[in-house]
Design brief:
Bound molecules: fe (ii) ion
Number of domains: 1
Shape: globular
Radius of gyration: 19 Å
Order of helices and strands: HEHEHEEEEEHHEEEEEEEHEEEEEH
Largest sheet: 6 strands, mixed
Helix content: 10-25%
Number of strands: 19
CATH architecture: 4-Layer Sandwich
CATH class: Alpha Beta
């Protein structure tokens, strides 16, 4: 039987450590027990994300502790205040905002179709579908994204749904299939994003790194992944190839753990950077999709594995 007393403050008995099957099974059973079976169970009605009530806050934290995500529906329809995701983040303990170079000056990114200019070259600023990924997979190790907030100001005339999969559930499904797949995906050179060369030279060097990694301080699991097949180099090992194939089959499957839905105005996603995709969409004169996105290097407060599962 797994002993709780051995685990405090160390990764020795971390469930994500392949050498520790007792801790893994203890955590896995707790994680899967009562796990939501429909996206409706993730949806929380809130008044204003800028000023959560104590009850709203607790419900969000509980949901993110269980599934690494929560969806909210708020009474902010028609309000395009960019402070919504920033003020929400502050209440959730998120302090380390990722100011990526295409973000607006507040550090919030406005995801909307940009027909011209620098942003128009990047798929998030088009109406095209985006394959499964976690955010910031191209970032260096010290700038990995641990949480992601989306707030919908306006939805498209048609389409733009998201699929969502808790990355800890993905870990379980992969490890249960073959623990060696996890071993391959934890290798430091499992997935490399090749350098981006700009007109003036190298804009960004090669970014090799693992798919799954364990935070050395908190013990939490992080996932770095993209289903894109161009501009990505997987380690040439046969086991890595098999593992990657298994992951893409899982993400293409109709697994009950994959939640699908569309953010409507006033709604938002709060997540510890779970796996997600985006369907293509069509705008019309009255419906131009606009989502605010804020990404952080920290995880939502009190949703870590040790706190939630009392490791
Ligand atoms: Fe994303």
């Amino acid at each position: 039987m797994f002993s709780l007393s051995q685990t405090k403050g160390s990764n020795k008995n971390n469930p994500f450590d392949l050498n520790n099957t007792d801790a893994y099974h203890y955590w896995r059973d707790k994680k899967l027990s009562g796990y939501p079976t429909s996206i409706d169970e993730l949806l929380i009605e809130i008044k204003d994300p800028r000023a959560l009530s104590a009850a709203e806050y607790q419900t969000i934290i509980r949901s993110c502790g269980k599934t690494n995500m929560a969806l909210y529906r708020s009474e902010t329809v028609g309000d395009s205040d960019k402070n919504i995701p920033l003020m929400l983040a502050k209440q959730l303990g998120l302090r380390l905002l990722d100011h990526n170079w295409l973000a607006d000056k507040e550090g919030v990114t406005s995801l909307t179709v940009r027909p011209t200019g620098e942003r128009s070259h990047y798929i998030p600023y088009t109406n095209r579908p985006i394959h499964w990924h976690t955010d910031g997979y191209y970032n260096p190790a010290h700038r990995q994204i641990h949480s992601l907030l989306l707030h919908c100001v306006a939805s498209a005339a048609q389409g733009g749904e998201n699929a969502l999969l808790d990355h800890e559930i993905a870990y379980i499904l992969i490890r249960d299939e073959n623990p060696d797949y996890i071993r391959a995906l934890m290798a430091n050179d499992a997935m490399t994003i090749p350098a981006r060369i700009s007109d003036t030279g190298t804009a960004r060097p090669d970014q090799p790194g693992p798919v799954f990694s364990i935070n050395p301080v908190s013990g939490d699991l992080h996932m770095r992944y993209t289903a894109r097949t161009r501009s990505i180099i997987w380690e040439h090992h046969a086991l890595t190839r098999e593992a990657v194939d298994f992951v893409s089959q899982l993400l293409d499957s109709d697994s009950g753990y994959i939640f699908r839905g569309r953010l409507e105005p006033g709604m938002g996603l709060i997540s510890n950077n779970v796996l997600h995709d985006r369907a293509g969409f069509e705008n019309d004169a009255l419906h131009e999709r606009l989502l605010y996105r804020a990404r952080f290097y920290d995880r939502i407060r009190d949703t870590g594995m040790r706190k939630v599962f009392q490791f």
